[in-house]
C-alpha cells in the first residue's frame, strides 16, 4: 500500500515507515533531553508545528530540517564526527567518478540466428 502526500508524491510503505520511525526517534530523543517542541523548533529555525509534523513522519517536512533536528537531539546520521562524514562523502565521490555518467542500460542485441 502507498501513501500520497498533498503534493501527490506517491510514497512506498517502506518509505512511510522510515519517515514515521525517524520522527518517533527524534521525538523520543527530544523528550529524553527535556526539550519542548517549541525549543527544538527554535534551535532548528522552524515552528513547533513543523516539529510536530516531523515527529509524525510527515513527508512534506524538508529533509534538511529533519537532519538538523536529528543532529540537535543526538541521533547520528551516517556518523557523529565531521571526519566520519567527510570520509563517507569522499568515498561516495570516488565511487561516482568510476561509475558511468548515465544510468541508462545499453540494449545488447543478441545474435541468436542459428
UniProtKB/TrEMBL annotation:
The lineage of its organism: Bacteria, Pseudomonadati, Pseudomonadota, Gammaproteobacteria, Thiotrichales. It comes from the Bacteria. This is HTH cro/C1-type domain-containing protein. PROSITE patterns: HTH_CROC1. Residues 26-58 form the HTH cro/C1-type domain. One of its GO terms (molecular function) is DNA binding. It holds the Pfam family HTH_3. InterPro entries: Cro/C1-type_HTH, Lambda_DNA-bd_dom_sf. SUPFAM superfamilies: lambda repressor-like DNA-binding domains (SSF47413).
